[in-house]
Specification:
alpha+beta, Nucleotidyltransferase, domain 5, 2 domains, 14 helices, binds beta-L-fructofuranose
Amino acid sequence: MTAVAAVDLGASSGRVVRGVVADGTVHVEEVHRFPNGPVRLRDTLHWDVLGLYREVLTGLGLAGEVGSIGIDSWAVDYGLLDERGALLGNPVHYRDARTASITPPDGLYEVNGLQFQPFNTMFQLMAEPLLPHASQLLLIPDLLSYWLTGERGAEYTNATTTGLIDVRGGRWSSELTRALPPGLLPELRHPGDPAGVFEGVPVTAVGSHDTASAVVAVPAETDRFAYISCGTWSLVGVELSSPVLTPESRAANFTNEGGVDGTIRYLRNVMGLWLLQECLRRWDTALEPLLRQAEHAQGSLFDPNDPVFLPPGDMPDRIQQWCRDHDRRVPESSAEIVRSVLDSLAAAHRDAIADAQRLSGKEVEVVHVVGGGSRNELLCQLTADACGLPVVAGPAEATALGNVLVQARAVAAVHGPLAELRRLVRQSQPLRRYLPR
Ligand code: LFR
């Protein structure tokens, strides 16, 4: 039996789990959970990164004896260090408005393969007042790892979300990083690499982009699957062995993010359960009763990826306004608004899966929904209906499981390629199947 600790920070909550691999199974036990979210300081949205570090320490204290520690979080955001290694300023939240009016320069996609998102690190750096004072940039999991161990590096899967990696060579692009201070970007390390030691325990690089870890734990039986990593975002796509960099792919806003074991996550970001989280925050109510009412409510379809929905704010109002502006029936009750969100997400899931297949040539026979959204039965059923494909839902803690499995492989508690790690997940996690109606 081998135990490891996985730190998994999502945009709305973080957790530390103790993962155990034994006899062909993998299990995670949550030892600490804490809220996460934006903090507005005057005009800027920040993360409370010191608060997160404190929670990480608390969680690691509760995890007991482990053979390794691994950290993953949401992507793109970073801290800047001065020449002595001290943090310069508090990291800014990717939903901050500082990049709202960015227009991307031409010729990027052919090099970095990334869909345009205004918040990609490279665009944040264009709006970063502290850049001239910075000697190094660390992405959030790498920053926390540095605080634990004193060692710096840039984990590859998360580094691909900066927009500064050459997707074909898998290295920092000399062309795209030319304008940055020399030495700003640390050496790359890869999932499974050693990343220092904390109180005698090795820290291991994992797929430190949460979506990379989540896709490791997709319990697929064959390679003919699509996945939806469903949480604050829905990350919807397929796994490939090489990137698709065609003009059609760029026009469809598909991204080629680096995955564990050299895979490419070919996907589109769909706005995801953020829409619902923000509605609930506004109404100050719980989700479950609303979901039951939404089963029988009438929804209106809106475009969940409209940038008006990106910043925090009065979400129900924005959804109604969108419907008004686009001559759609305006959902009135909260149940109707919830139903509109779920119908619109299901339609966006369908479109992304259809586009992924068309643009990559990969055929799909099943859709795996992993992450917290896999618990949302109505969303899973509506997604199966919209796609006309079976949906396999679970595990809800895919990200933590993927984090654990990559560590377990690094300490030789499991062996083999991704297919083998996925078999462990399939054998040990409860899954639920939805057939299209
Ligand atoms: C999901 C995620 C997405 C990324 C977004 C912003 O948590 O990591 O993959 O596009 O957050 O970082």
